[in-house]
Amino acid sequence: PELRYPPRLNCAVELLDTTIGRHGADRRCLLSPTETWTYGDLRRHADGVARVLVEDLGLVPGNRVLLRGPNNPWLVACWLGVLKAGGVAVTTMALLRTAELSVIREMAHVDLALCDHRFTGALAPVPGLRVVTYGSGADDDLVHRAARKPAGFDAVPTAADDIALIAFTSGTTGRPKATMHFHRDVLAIADTFSRHVLRPAADDLFTGSPPLAFTFGLGALVVFPLRAGAATLLLETATPDALADAVARHGVTVLSTAPTAYRAMLAAGHADRLTSLRRCVSAGEALPEATWRAFHDATGVRIIDGIGATEMLHIFIAAADDDIRPGSTGRPVPGYDARVVDDEGRPVPDGELGRLAVRGPTGCRYLADDRQRVYVENGWNLTGDTYVRDADGYFWHQARSDDMIISAGYNIAGPEVEEALLRHPDVVECGVVGSPDEVRGTMVVTAYVVLRDGVAADDTKARELQDFTKATIAPYKYPRRLEFVEALPRTDTGKLQRFRLRAMARG
Ligand code: 3UK
Predict the structure, then answer these.
(1) What percent of the chain stands above pLDDT 90?
(2) Among the atoms of ligand 1, which is closest to the Cα of residue 384?
(3) Ligand 1 in reach of 493 Cβ (< 6 A)
């Protein structure tokens, strides 16, 4: 499908006003555990925010505005208000501290922040930043200032290729990168993955765990439901238990979260409370076949695995329904091309390992970063993942390219060993990396394992898991070293930090 957008396009107007034109203003739009906003409510609040930005705070189109707060309706009102005013939204993770926020401020040239009143602590010391709070109840709070404004706002007629947002990569390795996305990109993710794979209806209720600062969350919890005229339940804390509670209480139909949360919900015995779910999306890490099957057996729902990236804004390979091959990420989302290439950028034959390259309506634009040249070759974005494509065109994730373990001449993908371990009923989570072995002069496959509550972490269990792995995949891949841990190190976006495990393994 070819995506056609007019040259002048403001994605916030499309998501709000155009949707209201189609479905009316009285439909429910944003829910929190305590509130329900209709589309009309959201438009009123977003317009009020836009007026405060332009009339009181002197915002001019192109100015960047930092947003900080947990997922809730006011964060969405601020995001849409910034975009309607022609500003650029720089949404940040609520967990970030002053040092990281200062880097973001400098990299993105931000002078103004809209911040949840409970999260100002880490922002206050950031030099050169004006902070306006929302939610405090004080008279000069953004909520009150917006409410005092007359209704309506003439949105800035931005160009379709004006920058709408700057998203920072969470970084499984440390140094953050800033990616820029246009107004049309925001609509393009809804008009590709959501429209053709997820296919939501106006009576769907969405929820999920990813923060809106993670573009997985922005798409899955704001852009997709609003584009479809549907409703979305925003949770400030979205632990697996909280997700299951929310699904049961509100009758959620579309859930988006990470593989580890699907496993955790099953391990905690929540399957019976998930009966209202119609669609589930998993992204951020590979969804192991064992997790897909266990979830399907327990709930009847076929999880949609999708690989996305901050650089691409959202998901570009996925599959749904009968098209799903459990364990595979799927096929390119309509509108995207993907292929597996060698180090020179030439496609490798089907069935062979290579680097994933993708192109489509969205794509990588780093803000002032020379890594642009490394990441984009001839219009193809290189994601840093090792993949195999099969003869039927399905893409199979092997590892992050730097997570391949070379042990005694063998190429071993850490995630493949993890997947084998996860098939064992006592394993809830695990991470597998290579660690140097001085004696053998090679890398040793090393596993860190979180056991189910109540299972004894002893040598017998370790040997049992090693034997289990040998019986499940080629024996040379088994974890020669295996340690039990309480939890695995993860990024704010829920990704396993294998570089931390490698550091642990080095001692
Ligand atoms: C990995 C996956 C296997 C992969 C994201 C959906 O994760 C997102 O963006 P990030 O920039 O990370 C990108 C990297 O994460 N990955 C993501 N999904 C999968 N690996 N299977 C998957 N299904 O290494 C990729 O290069 O944090 C995901 C939507 C928006 C996003 N930003």
Answers:
(1) 82
(2) 26
(3) yes
For ligand 1, atom 21: residue with the closest CA: 286
| Domain boundary residue, one of 299, 323, 347 | 299
Instruction: Say which CATH number the domain at 163 has.
Output: 3.40.50.12780
Neighbours of 498 (CB within 10 A): 25
Measured from the CB, is residue 305 less than 6 Å from ligand 1?
Answer: yes
Asked whether the predicted pLDDT for residue 23 surpasses 80, the reply is: yes
Question: Tens digits of per-residue pLDDT, 327-338?
Answer: 999 999 999 999
403: confidence class by pLDDT, cuts 50, 70, 90: confident
Q: Which residues of 454-492 are buried (b: 16+ CB within 10 A; e: fewer)?
A: eeeeeeebbeebbebbeebbeeebbbbbbebbeebbbbb
Nearest CA to ligand 1 atom 9: 309
The lowest-confidence range among 38-47, 403-412, 477-486 is 403-412
Question: Which of 284, 299, 314 is at the close of a domain?
Answer: 299
Which DSSP category does 301 fall into?
-
For the chain, give the mean pLDDT.
94
Does residue 182's CB lie within 6 angstroms of at least one atom of ligand 1? no
Q: What is the dihedral of CA 52, 54, 56, 58, to 10 degrees?
A: 140
pLDDT tens string 190-240: 999 999 999 999 999 999 999 999 999 999 999 999 999 999 999 999 999
Nearest Cα residue to atom 25 of ligand 1: 309
Domain span at residue 434?
A: 408-506
Does ligand 1 come within 6 angstroms of the Cβ of 314?
yes
Residue 369 within any structural domain of the chain: no
Angle (CA) 292-494-195 rounded to 5° is 60
Residue 215 in contact with ligand 1 by CB distance below 6 A = yes
Which residue's C-alpha comes closest to atom 8 of ligand 1? Answer: 309
State the Cα–Cα distance between residues 344 and 446, nearest whole angstrom: 31
330 within domain boundaries: no
CATH number assigned to the domain comprising residue 473: 3.30.300.30
Q: How many domains does the chain have?
A: 2
Query: Which tens digits make up the pLDDT trace of 27-47?
Result: 999 999 999 999 999 999 999
